[in-house]
Design a protein that fits this description.
The complex is a heterotrimer of chains A (172), B (200) and C (212). Chain A is mainly alpha-helical and 172 residues long. In chain A, α6 packs across α7. Chain B is an all-alpha fold and 200 residues long. In chain C, α6 links the parallel β4 and β5. Classes of the chains: A mainly alpha (172), B mainly alpha (200), C alpha/beta (212). Chains A and B meet through α1, α2, α4, α5 and α6 of A and α1, α2, α3, α4 and α5 of B.
Chain lengths: 172, 200, 212
């Protein structure tokens, strides 16, 4: 394979930069980063379009509707749009823009897709129950020293480590 | 005095613009760090690539120490900064479910968006899965609500719970992180997988 | 040389972090900025309505049954007994700072929402608690009067008004049914103080965050 890719940034340097981005978020807007919240807004908005009546009566979706603004006009939605743009810019500079399914050579595309779908569903579900994902609850929560942040972080990484053995065939 | 936007009552539009710009920085750094690759992320759990550990903890520590210094210098009003609400049970159960999703799907929501931005199809599917998961949560919310709202204890800070200063806790976290970096880099040698590392 | 390159980033990063952590650990504790609120800041917050909760927000909070808010009725016991909002406890204004009640208003766990008939009494209570540096207190803008005009007896918007006005009206009708027993949503499970946290959209109140 001809390798035109640029290498990734040194992880410690990337960590410092990510920390500064997070700090900037706190300094400017008083809140940390996030991701799953934007996906929730997308779901709520979609449900509202498909069946507005159901959306407002559902006790979860209804919470985010009825305000003066659409659920899509939220901080996290705009932030995640930024993530798309930022990721794209970085990928373009590094020559990593390419449609592909990334997987271990030991498994089929189909299997990777199914795993991604199941993993995504679990993560989406868990992020709502846990009130935030790796970025919103764990990373941002740890920065403000919140107990919730540390608990969520330990639970996410602890479970992933504990289950790693059972899913090893998919990765190594 | 910060946080600048909420404290000065600037418009929501400016807040959203800030969100967008912050997001660009977030996405850029994630991609640069290699978080757009699920096999790099998963490397954390098999020891062959602990980039996640390094980036995640360095970032959390940078922001943590930054906030402590800003607070010390009186540059930020920490009474306005969001501190995560802690509902003991849902945080734990949610975290466990997310951990399972992580090892199965290979992404978390933030990294999946970043990976989708550079064309990773598995990441796009992961996002699709997340949307479905959130939808299912909404459908089953009435049933889950007792768990979701149970054992609420406010928004406690770990330093307050332990009865120590923020700075001391930060120092302890840094100490642990430094140890983990050291062990992690040993693991990277021990579980080295050149075949995977050259592909990601 | 390759070997050195592999080690140095970690060593540099570790060294810098430990150093920063050490400095952070030996810094003397900071003053709590919220206890040093001066009159000017207080007025600014009041003007920004940073700690105000609207009746619509409150209705939603009650419907959602979030456990983290506590409604505090500042009126007299007689008035409270005649009518009070679901789940509210009664702390007459003049006994707000007595020994019995201070633990309710000076605490770090729940978000209190003060209300009275109008806004005067509740704003005053909020200012007094804010000046003392108590956290997590809010007040109901418009008080019970607005609660009745907007939630219990909402007026339908004119046909020419915006969609938002209609949506708001729909929402209010739903809330009305919820509170007047004509339950359309689900039975209110208001055990004493099991209510809901204000979803802050306002200026100087803790920023809404997280990513749930």
């Amino acid at each position: 394979m001809i390798d035109t890719k640029t290498k990734y940034m040194n992880p410690y340097l990337a960590g410092v930069l990510l920390g500064l981005v997070l700090l900037a978020a706190f300094y400017l807007t008083g809140r940390g980063l996030g991701a799953s919240g934007a996906m929730k807004s997308a779901v709520v908005a979609t449900v509202d379009v498909v069946d507005a009546n159901y959306a407002t009566t559902n006790s979860f979706f209804g919470k985010f509707l009825g305000g003066p603004n659409s659920p899509m006009k939220s901080w996290l939605v705009f932030e995640v749009l930024g993530v798309l743009v930022g990721g794209f810019i970085s990928g373009a500079f590094a020559g990593r823009l390419k449609f592909k399914i990334e997987k271990s050579p030991n498994i089929t595309n189909r299997r990777r897709i199914i795993l991604a779908l199941i993993g995504g569903a679990l993560f989406g579900f868990g992020s709502q129950l846990g009130r935030g994902c790796t970025s919103g609850a764990a990373l941002s929560g740890m920065a403000v020293l919140s107990v919730a942040g540390y608990v969520t972080m330990v639970c996410i990484f602890g479970t992933a480590f504990a289950l790693a053995y059972f899913f090893r065939k998919n990765w190594i | 005095m910060a946080p600048i936007i909420p404290l000065n009552g600037y418009t929501e539009e400016l807040n959203l613009l800030a969100a967008f710009l912050i997001g660009i920085g977030f996405g850029f750094v994630l991609e640069q760090a290699g978080f757009s690759s699920s096999r790099k992320l998963a490397g954390m759990f098999y020891g062959y690539d602990i980039t996640v550990l390094k980036v995640f903890f360095t970032a959390a520590i940078t922001a943590m120490v930054g906030l402590i210094f800003l607070n010390y210098l009186g540059l930020i009003d920490m009474s306005i900064v969001y501190i995560n609400q802690y509902y003991i049970k849902s945080a734990i159960v949610g975290g466990v479910i997310m951990g399972a999703g992580f090892i199965i799907g290979g992404f978390c929501p933030g990294t999946s968006v970043c990976a989708a931005a550079i064309g990773k199809i598995d990441a796009m599917i992961f996002i699709g899965g997340s949307l479905i998961g959130i939808f299912i949560f909404g459908l089953t919310y009435d049933w889950l609500e007792p768990l979701y709202n149970d054992a609420f204890v406010g928004a406690p800070k770990l330093s307050e719970e332990l009865g120590i200063k923020d700075g001391l806790l930060a120092f302890a976290v840094i100490f642990m992180a430094v140890m983990m970096f050291w062990l992690g880099e040993k693991a990277e040698k021990m579980f080295k997988r050149d075949d995977i590392s050259k592909e990601i | 040389m390759k070997k050195v390159n592999n080690y140095t980033p970690r060593l540099i990063a570790s060294l810098v972090m430990v150093l920063m952590g050490f400095v952070a650990a030996v810094l003397p504790p900071t003053k709590n900025s919220s206890t040093e609120l001066n009159a000017e800041q207080l007025l600014r917050e009041l003007k920004l309505e940073s700690h105000a909760v609207s009746v619509d927000e409150l209705a939603q909070l009650l419907i959602d049954k979030d456990p983290s808010i506590l409604l505090i009725d500042l009126r007299s016991k007689t008035e409270y007994d005649t009518f009070h909002l679901p789940g509210a406890i009664n702390i007459p204004f003049d006994s707000l700072f007595t020994e019995n009640w201070v633990p309710y208003v000076d605490q770090g766990m729940r978000n209190n929402v003060f209300y009275s008939n109008g806004t005067t009494l509740s704003t005053e209570a909020w200012m007094l608690t804010r000046q003392r540096g108590f956290k997590n207190n809010y007040y109901l803008r418009g008080g019970l009067n607005e609660w009745f005009t907007d939630i219990i007896l909402p007026v339908p918007p004119e046909a020419t008004e915006s969609k938002a006005a209609f949506d708001l009206y729909q929402k209010r009708v739903g809330a009305k049914m919820f509170f007047t027993g004509n339950t359309a949503i689900s039975a209110p499970a208001q055990s004493e103080s099991e209510i809901k946290l204000p979803v802050p959209q306002k200026k100087k109140q803790r920023v809404e965050g997280g990513c749930s």
